[in-house]
Structure prediction request, 162 residues.
Amino acid sequence: MSSLGDPGSTSALGGALRQQAITLADLVVDLTEAAERAGRAGRPDVTARERDLLSRVAHELDSVGAALQSFTATVLAGSARVRELSTEAARADLVVDGSLVVEPPGPSRVDPVARLRARERLQELLNRVTAAEGKELGRIARELARSGPALAAVSERCRLGS
Prediction:
């Protein structure tokens, strides 16, 4: 149903973002251990800023990656459901056309009342699939709207050295 590229690429991007988040989190652990060793030796912790910045970026990458992977799962489940609904629609001499269940042109051998009931029921089920995808798209939009400024703030802090 979605026209946002192929689910495999979307999932791969989400996975790559999450993998980078793990890599950054591992760096934070390494820096934390180094800071603890320095503290025990009486030296100052010079990595606090870097650890904070890496942690913030890791969190943002993981959040966006998770949203992309969740969207992919929803799209794949929705595609399977649409195929099922299309098969059921064909039995009622109906067609799934995008987000609509429609009657194809020409005469039908299916009882008009039964066909109308089937169309209404199938349309409701198809609306649920569409709504689930819309909900996931909204989640991605919210994550990006929240994450973009957060990453810009981290970038600014890096440039300013603060």
Summary: Strands lie at 95-97, 100-102. The chain has a mean pLDDT of 94. The longest helix spans residues 112-160. Residues 7-160 form one domain.
